[in-house]
């Protein structure tokens, strides 16, 4: 069949156990106005273009899924500090999150958020390409098509929910009337289930459609020679196509340009340096100023309810776990052997930065507490709330670069960055690099 042959393909066959008379009855009961709504005339829509967008998502979305699940494990669900804590049959195999490479969480979280944003233009283009299917009547003619529709609802609904709530969480601080983390976790599993079922059902169709046309040929085809794809049983090709106003290569360039544009607006939050000035979608945009402490934060001292009195001369660090508790003020901590480490800190919203941190090694503090080989450490903050404490694994405590930081880039920590002392651990999620530390309990078991 030539590319200009628009003869109608035969109606698809009904599946086993799905009475032919049922969908014929539904066909005669077409809702009023549906015919007008279903008149889509773009000559670009068709199985090939839809499959190109689908292939990009098939490559990119698994990366977003896997990095998201890894990030959940980075929060230590074995300690009950990942949200949600109890996930029943969806419990993932847990392990002690490593400290090396030190940029591991920066990579996984940066990919999860950054790639998720970059793929939004492709998601929108894919939805545009399959709009005619939303108005197909009857909605399904076989049990296989019913399953496909359900998987599509889970896929599209779950994906849009993840994108919208994720964007809102990046830009605004706790705007939801529900737990973002809980909703994002369960929404992700709805999306994953729909994604797996939909790919299983449509992979062969996608592969066949991609082979139907040459990408190289389409990239060389100008607007004047752009014609609709042949009619087939997919319902994507318009039966009444309008003249083309854009070539397929133009459509691909538009979507690709959108991906590059989003990348420019977001990549700086992870890459850092001068590119951060281009990151107009910088999460919540909070930067406490210039100088050594002039890098992003997630929660200010004022927002956390930290007062000058609590962090003043009367502040003490309490270490427990050994034969008896010991306490140190900041002057005593500053007099101890100090270590400087260049480490990144990465936040769940996607931003990250690398700084030079100076302080006392956590393993030295464990020894002072009388627990030189702790199985874990429980860190408490002066602030209140769900992130006012964190449990560290043995490997995280004993890593030579794990610090109770007192300074950053040669200057004392600012109040917003955790003065008088904060935890900084390689590859640890930023929210667990506890600020305004008041106590550490080194546990032997």
From TrEMBL:
Ranges for region Disordered: 1-22
Domain of life, per lineage: Bacteria
Pfam short name (any one): Oxidored_molyb
TM region positions: 48-70, 111-131, 152-172, 178-201, 251-271
Domain Oxidoreductase molybdopterin-binding span(s) in chain numbering: 314-443
KW Amino-acid biosynthesis (keyword) present: no
Keyword terms: Membrane, Transmembrane, Transmembrane helix
The keyword Phosphoprotein belongs to this UniProt entry's keyword annotation: no
Family annotation (PANTHER family): BLL0505 PROTEIN, PROTEIN-METHIONINE-SULFOXIDE REDUCTASE
Protein name, per record: Molybdopterin-dependent oxidoreductase
Organism encoding this protein: Pseudonocardia acidicola
């Amino acid at each position: 069949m030539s590319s200009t042959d628009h003869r109608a393909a035969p109606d698809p066959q009904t599946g086993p156990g799905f009475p032919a008379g049922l969908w014929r009855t539904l066909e005669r009961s077409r809702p009023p106005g549906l015919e007008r709504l279903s008149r889509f005339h773009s000559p670009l829509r068709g199985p090939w273009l839809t499959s190109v967008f689908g292939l990009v998502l098939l490559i990119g979305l698994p990366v977003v899924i896997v990095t998201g699940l890894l990030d959940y494990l980075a929060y230590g669900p074995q300690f009950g500090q990942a949200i949600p804590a109890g996930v029943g049959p969806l419990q993932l195999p847990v392990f002690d999150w490593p400290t090396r490479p030190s940029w591991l969480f920066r990579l996984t979280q940066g990919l999860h958020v950054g790639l998720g944003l970059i793929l939004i233009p492709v998601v929108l283009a894919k939805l545009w390409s399959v709009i005619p299917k939303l108005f197909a009547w009857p909605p399904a003619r076989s049990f296989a098509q019913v399953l496909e529709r359900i998987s599509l609802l889970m896929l599209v609904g779950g994906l849009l929910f993840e994108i919208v709530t994720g964007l809102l969480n990046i830009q605004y601080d706790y705007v939801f009337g529900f737990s973002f983390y809980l909703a994002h976790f369960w929404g992700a599993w709805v999306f994953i289930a729909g994604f797996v079922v939909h790919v299983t059902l449509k992979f062969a169709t996608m592969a066949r459609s991609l082979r139907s046309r040459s990408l190289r040929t389409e990239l060389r085809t100008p607007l004047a020679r752009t014609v609709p794809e042949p009619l087939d049983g997919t319902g994507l090709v318009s039966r009444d196509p309008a003249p083309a106003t854009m070539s397929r290569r133009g459509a691909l360039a538009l979507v690709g340009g959108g991906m590059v544009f989003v990348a420019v607006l977001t990549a700086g939050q992870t890459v850092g340096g001068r590119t951060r000035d281009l990151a107009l979608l910088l999460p919540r945009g909070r930067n406490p100023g210039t100088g050594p402490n002039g890098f992003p934060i997630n929660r200010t001292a004022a927002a956390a309810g930290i007062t000058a009195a609590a962090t003043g001369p009367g502040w003490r660090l309490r270490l427990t776990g050994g034969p008896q508790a010991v306490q140190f003020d900041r002057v005593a901590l500053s007099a101890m052997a100090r270590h400087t480490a260049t480490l990144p800190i990465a936040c769940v919203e996607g931003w990250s930065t690398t700084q030079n941190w100076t302080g006392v090694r956590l393993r030295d503090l464990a020894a002072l507490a009388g627990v030189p080989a702790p199985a874990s450490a429980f860190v408490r903050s002066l602030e209140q709330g769900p992130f006012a404490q964190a449990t560290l694994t043995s490997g995280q405590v004993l890593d030579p670069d794990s610090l109770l930081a007192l300074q950053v880039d040669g200057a004392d920590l600012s109040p917003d960055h955790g003065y008088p002392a904060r935890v900084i651990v390689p590859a640890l999620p930023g929210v667990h690099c506890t600020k305004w530390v008041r106590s550490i309990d080194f546990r032997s078991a």
